[in-house]
Every structure is written in C-alpha cells, then in structure tokens.
Amino acid sequence: MAVKNVEVEVPKTPIEEDIKAPGWFQQLSDVADYWKNELVALLLHQRKPSYAQTLMDKATTFDQWTAAAEMLDKIEGTIINLSHSWSWGADVIQLGHDKWKANPVSSDYDYRLVQDRLAQLKKIRESGDLMSMIYYLRTSITRNLGDCGNYKLFGVAHLGTKNLIDEYQEEVMTMLKTICDMEAPDQVDESFKYDCFMNMQKAFGRTALLLSGGGTFGLAHLGVLKALHEAKLLPKIVSGSSVGSLIAGILCVRTDEEIGQLFCRETYNLNTFERPGEGNLYLRLTRFLRHGVIYDGEVFRESVKENLKGVGNNNTRGDMTFLEAFNRTKRILNITVSSSTVYEMPRLLNYLTAPNVLIYSAICCSCAIPFVYRSAPLLMKDRSGKVTAWNPSGQVWIDGSVENDLPMARISELFGVNHFIVSQVNPHVVPFMQTSFSPSLISRLVGSTSSVLRSELQHRLGQLSDVGLSSSLTYRAQAILVQKYYGDVTIVPTMTISDYGRIVTNPTTDLFNRYLISGEQSTWPLIPLMRNHIQIEMCISECMYSLRTKKLAGMKQDEREGWKKIGQRLNGVEKDVIISQPDLSR
C-alpha cells in the first residue's frame, strides 16, 4: 500500500522569549523544571509527541488549535492489525475518534435516555403545537441529562464528544428558538412566552465565572477571558478575589464592544507593586520594618484606577460603583474581602450587597495580601457624590483569598447559580490540581496525598483550637485549608517553578504576553465541555432578550416604558439610586 507524503503547512508562531528571573534563582528553577519533565517522562513512559500534538502545543489561536486537534483525533484512531502479517502484511484499520463519536453507546452516560428524549423533542417540535413544546421543555429541561456532561465523555477525543449529545443539545436550542419565533395563538401573548422563558431560566440555573487569587500569575486570567469571549461562552456573573478581583473589575466595567481592549498590553499600567526606579531591597526592608509591609499601597491604588479606565483614557470607569458598573454593562461583578480581625465574617461585594461601594477600593482591599500591602478601608459615594468611608467605624479589610477565594454558596443564594467555571492560579493550589480529563497515576497519587495531608493539618489545627492554643495565624491557616478550590469546570494555567519568583513583582511586557497565551491554551481543551454545559442556558437568555425587544418595538411610548421597567426588574436591573450610610455620630 503506497503512502503519499503530504506536506502540511505549519502555522507560524511567535518566538517565545525565555523570561529570566534574577540570577541563581532562574538557574535553579530551570534545572528543576528540566529534571521534573525528565522524571515524569520516565515514570509514564511517554513517547515523543506527534507532529499534530506539537501543533496543538504551539498554537496561538483557537482555530490553529482546533485544526491540530482534528488531525490528532484521526491519527490516534489508527490501529495496526498484525494478525495476518505472515501472509499479506499488516492491516491498517482507520477508526479515528470520529467513529467513537458516531457510536452513541457508552457506560459513562445514559445514552438510551438521551435517545428517547431526543426522539420526543423532534416529534413535539414537528407537530407545531406551541403549548406542548412549552410544557415539555419546562418540565424536562436540565443541564446534565443522563450525565451527558460527564468529564470522561470529553477526554477520549481532543475535540468534542458523542454526536448523540450534540444532537440533543441542538434540538433543545432549535425548539427554544422555535417557541420564541412562532406566532402565538390568540390566548397566548408575548408576555406569557417571556414568563415561560424566565421560569425555564430559573429551573435550568445560571453560570458564574470565578477568578482566584495568584499574584502576578493572575494575568493568566486574561487569557481565560479571551478564550471564553471568542468562543461566546463568557458568563455575565463574574467573581474575583485578590488579583482575580482586579481582572474581574476590569472586565465588568466594560461593555461588549470594549472587551477587545482587555487583551492589549497597551491598556495596562503594570507598575502594580512599585514605580519604575523604586525597586531596591533597602526601600522594601525599611518599609517592612516601619509599616509591616513590603510595598506601598498607594502605588497599587493608582495602578488599579488607571487600569479600570484604560491607560490614556479620561473616562469615569476608574470611579465607578458596583451599581453603576452593572447598569452600564449588565455584568454582575462580585469581589470578596476578608476582615482584618477574626471577629468579622468575609464579605461578598456586588450591586446588591454594596451598591455604592467604589470598585477600585474593593479591589485594593481584596488584594491587600498580608505583609505585602497594608489593609485598606472600603469607600463609597454618598448622595452628593462625595467619597466617604463605607463603614464609619474605620474597619479595614484584607486579601479575599484568605477566607473566601471562591464564594460559591453566597453567589448561588443571590443569583440562582448552579454551575461554576473556575480559573485557578493560586500558587499553593496549582501544583495539586489535576489538569487533564484522564489524570495519570502520578497525578492521582499527588492528589490523594495532598488530600490526606490537608485533612491531617485541619485535624491538628482543630486540636489546637480545642485546647485554647489557637491564634489569628492558625485561624487563617484553617480558613485556607477548608476552602474548596475547584468548580464544575476548573481551568488551571500551566505554572513553572520560575514563576514562583515573580508572584509579587511588576510584570514585564514579555511576561504579560506569555501569561496571556498560557491562559488561552489551558482553556481551549475545555471549550467543548463548557459549551455542552452552558449553551442551552445562553440560548434561553437570547430568547428572553429577543422577546423583550420585539415587545418594545410594537408598543406606544408610554406602554414601552412600563414594559421596559418590568423587563428590567425581572432581569435584575436596578435603578441607580444612591443609598447613604446612616449618620451614627449624632
């Protein structure tokens, strides 16, 4: 059998410059990274990566990655049958992952249930009965029918899953759009259909994106946002703690048309820790001895305000409150802060719980890492627009990651969220996270060992508390250990040993670009899974928007204003009212 040599054009990729950390630390980290990779390859008996795998690893756009993944799916499905090689030579059987996708049978989900539900949906939609379609969807729609969102179903092929699952999702979305566009009978108006979609949204649930803390490595969150935005999978509810609050704030003060600015280096002031020329050991040591912190919080505050606006802009985004940002972009920003004392619970700030708090002040509080920045107060706008303290008692707050890195429970209570996408870059968490659909034996052992060690530490710290030997330090340690650091989908950008030496340093332009690419590359393999989880939810939201727009277009001016207010109330849009703190000094 003749095999033709096929020349495949390799997409050109930018040369990634190796970013050097100072001196001996860089040399040690390079040696450690090298031997770590060699040891893992030896233990797992890894083969040299194929040409398609190399293309995937070097891809700089999602289109490049997708093309390489499709190529690799075909290669990995090839089986060499040597059973008759003694007479006719080896048989080459081309299976490919496309064959696996086409076969609905799998023990990882209830394929019979999905098949039955798909057949029922098609039959009801083809009948053209609007009320039957509405009733069926309202009583049966769910995010994970028959466990079709199982991780294992997305770990066989590099791109996509069973065709049956895709067909079911497409049929649900087709029926939703049919209900939205169909001419309603006399007894059913657009308001009724809108109410039905609103009830479906409540029953189906909503998705939130949670951005963890992680110092300078948090720039990888930008790559995650870019990948989700380009795939049209970016949720409207976003939460951040520590550096995650900065990235979330920068996103949520911008409209959809302005999001493209987020991924350009020129948008940012990267002097977050110290101004140019101030980076010397003597100044840091003096500041630490005098104030107990290494860096000047005023430098960080200036950087945050400028980054919210965008470098060179004179807009008002730098002084926005949570409510103002929500009314401008319709994104729900959440920022976590921890109390500087052990007597106060951590807070989740958003347009409901802290409508008039200034976003930049919340970010400064959430990023106040102990011993790095001083704890900071929350600031708000009063009725006259004057900036005052949110808490008259002078309470100050610290890093939100300390006690509430991922505030899932509180967000679920406030916004009906039942699905969480987490971008995890915490340096003490990343090494223990499993980053593949099918973790290796070494990864499972590391995960199990870390879980046992964490449980043991929690137990010992609890014993200290029981005998009265606990302190604020042990309390903080317990708070860090008991937290949940993963979600329904967890994105973990690749972090090297040398990155640990840059966690609290000003990022360079090269480092910014490398972390941006790292965030994107870690997100691309999970896009098929996330699309499976949330595309129906987004289709429901689009239908609600379409119905509201259609209703407004056919109304008179006075009727239009009334319906607009109803739509705003149902979608959580609040009137921009300044609520002042009571004067407790009288």
Q: Give the biggest beta sheet.
A: 7 strands, mixed
Our measurement of the CA-to-CA distance between the termini, rounded to an integer number of angstroms, reads 94 Å
Approximately what portion of the residues adopt beta-strand conformation?
Answer: 5-15%
Radius of gyration: 27 Å
Annotation field: number of helices: 21
CATH architectural category of the largest domain: 3-Layer(aba) Sandwich
Quick one: how many beta strands? 11
**Low-pLDDT regions:** 1-22, 44-48, 78-94, 577-586
| General shape | globular
Give the structural class.
Answer: alpha/beta
Helix share, percent: 40-55%
CATH fold type of the largest domain: Cytosolic phospholipase A2 catalytic domain
- CATH top level assignment of the largest domain: Alpha Beta
Average of the residue pLDDT scores? 81
Question: How many domain modules?
Answer: 3
Short description:
With 586 residues, the protein is α/β, with parallel strands linked by helices.
Summarize the SSE layout with pairings.
Layout: H1 23-44, H2 51-58, H3 62-76, E1 78-81, E2 91-94, H4 96-102, H5 111-127, H6 130-140, H7 163-181, H8 190-204, E3 206-211, H9 220-230, E4 237-240, H10 243-252, H11 281-291, H12 297-309, H13 322-329, E5 332-339, E6 347-349, H14 359-366, E7 379-381, E8 387-389, E9 397-398, H15 401-404, H16 408-415, E10 417-423, H17 441-466, H18 472-482, E11 489-491, H19 509-523, H20 527-553, H21 557-570
